[in-house]
């Protein structure tokens, strides 16, 4: 679950990370009131779960309350990468002498939290990694011992030669690590971690992603979810107990199990296609899940074909077949459906589909290659 910048700032600020004051507003008048309270020049920042806000015009300076109101009125309601801005964060504009990056991710390869720091902050860390990877210092932390002082010092000295600033950065590393571990984060970053002309180290922006598996035992974090800032199809899928991630291709994929989903998407790309989504109906036998899955996928106008790839175990293939037949009776699918079913109750599933005038196959390669070919014909 992605947090908004203002939510991540609050968690980090509570842990002691030095952020400037600021507040979030949902109306231009509220933004003006915050700017008036802060005084001087402020920054009005769109709060959406998307990168590149500045390039999209979602981050602007405003000289005083009146200009903040005008600026907020322009940003509120604008669309950034398909998401409508409904909140803005108003913070003081800071004089910046230098910008650094400090991030912490959960690295599945090492099974440890890994710090990444760079003196090249203020821009996308992906761009730094691609063009100047030597500017990134990485350090894996053993969670049994936590971030040790000498490790924090190494990271801090990668950013600052001034000892006062390095000590301030060390403290921030420890604070960031504590917040990361306490809240079950998969990512937490401060970008930029800035210095001002008087040498003060100050955090100016934050991003945080909470592992969804953490939310069942942390209702306080789950309450921070802002569904209005998420892809509507993903919200609908979550409410239907489906795992769904929208992608950019045109082959709609319905599978059972994350491993089969990954294998299916790989095979779609192998045959020259592009998956339109990652949709996992899970391991239960519930035809209604299939109906909901088809409703979600067919709502995407880019989908040119729907590929079912079901390996029946706990998931009974006859239930999936019943779900497909029920869906086609309830609404017009509008695109071809290619069905691969194998496993539990396979013969019954084929009989159900045949009775509804549909056919299925049990060869995965054949099904995927057919789906990709149909998508290309329709494109």
Descriptive overview:
This protein is of the alpha+beta class and 379 residues long. Helices cover 38% and strands 24% of the residues. The protein is built from 13 helices and 17 strands. The strands form 4 sheets. Strands 7, 8, 9, 10, 11 and 12 form a 6-stranded antiparallel beta sheet that branches. The protein has a 5-stranded mixed beta sheet with strand order 13-15-14-16-17, sandwiched between helices. The protein has a 4-stranded antiparallel beta sheet with strand order 1-6-2-3, with helices on one face. Helix 2 runs antiparallel to helix 3 (65-75) and helix 11 runs parallel beside helix 12 (346-355). The longest helix is centred in the middle third of the chain and has 20 residues, at 163-182. It is elongated.
Any descriptors?
17 strands; alpha+beta; 5-stranded mixed sheet; 38% helix; elongated; 13 helices; 6-stranded antiparallel sheet; 379 residues; 24% strand
Short synopsis of the structure:
The chain is an alpha+beta fold and 379 residues long.
**Runs with pLDDT <50, length 5+?**
none
How far the N terminus sits from the C terminus, by CA atoms, comes to 33 Å
- Average the pLDDT over all residues and give the rounded result: 93
Please give the share of residues in helix. Answer: 25-40%
Please tally the helical runs, counting DSSP H or I stretches of 4 or more residues.
Answer: 13
The biggest beta sheet is recorded as: 6 strands, antiparallel
Strand content: 15-25%
Helix/strand class: alpha+beta
Radius of gyration, in Å, reads 25 Å
Strand/helix succession = HEHEEHEEEEEHEHHEEEHHEEHEHEHEHH
Beta-strand segment tally: 17
Shape: elongated
């Amino acid at each position: 679950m992605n947090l908004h910048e203002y939510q991540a700032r609050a968690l980090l600020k509570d842990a002691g990370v030095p952020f400037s004051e600021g507040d979030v507003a949902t109306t231009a008048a509220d933004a003006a009131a915050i700017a008036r309270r802060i005084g001087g020049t402020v920054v009005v920042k769109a709060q959406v779960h998307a990168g590149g806000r500045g390039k999209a015009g979602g981050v602007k300076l405003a000289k005083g309350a009146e200009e903040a109101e005008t600026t907020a009125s322009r940003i509120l309601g604008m669309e950034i990468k398909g998401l409508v801005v409904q909140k803005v964060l108003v913070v003081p504009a800071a004089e910046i002498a230098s910008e650094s990056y400090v991030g912490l991710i959960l690295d599945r390869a090492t099974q440890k939290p890994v710090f990444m720091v760079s003196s090249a902050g203020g821009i996308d860390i992906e761009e730094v990694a691609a063009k100047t990877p030597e500017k990134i210092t990485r350090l894996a932390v053993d969670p049994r011992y936590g971030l040790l002082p000498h490790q924090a010092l190494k990271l801090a000295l990668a950013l600052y030669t001034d000892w006062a600033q390095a000590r301030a950065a060390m403290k921030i590393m420890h604070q960031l690590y504590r917040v990361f571990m306490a809240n079950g984060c998969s990512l937490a970053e401060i970008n930029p971690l800035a210095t001002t002309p008087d040498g003060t180290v100050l955090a100016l922006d934050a991003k945080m992603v909470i592992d969804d598996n953490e939310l069942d035992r942390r209702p306080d974090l789950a309450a921070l979810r802002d569904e209005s800032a998420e892809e509507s199809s993903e919200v609908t899928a979550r409410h239907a107990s489906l795992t769904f991630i929208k992608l950019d291709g045109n082959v709609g994929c319905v599978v059972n199990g994350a491993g089969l989903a990954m294998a299916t998407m790989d095979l779609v790309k192998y045959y020259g296609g592009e998956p339109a989504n990652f949709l996992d109906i899970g391991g239960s036998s519930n035809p209604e899940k299939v109906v909901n899955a088809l409703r979600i996928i067919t709502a995407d106008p880019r989908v040119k074909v729907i590929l079912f790839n079901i390996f029946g175990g706990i998931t009974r293939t006859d239930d999936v077949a019943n779900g497909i037949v029920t869906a086609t009776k309830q609404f017009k699918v509008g695109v071809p459906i290619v069905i691969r079913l194998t496993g539990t109750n396979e013969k019954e599933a084929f009989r159900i589909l045949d009775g509804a005038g549909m056919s299925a196959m049990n060869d995965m390669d054949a099904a995927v290659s057919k789906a990709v070919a149909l998508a290309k014909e329709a494109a």
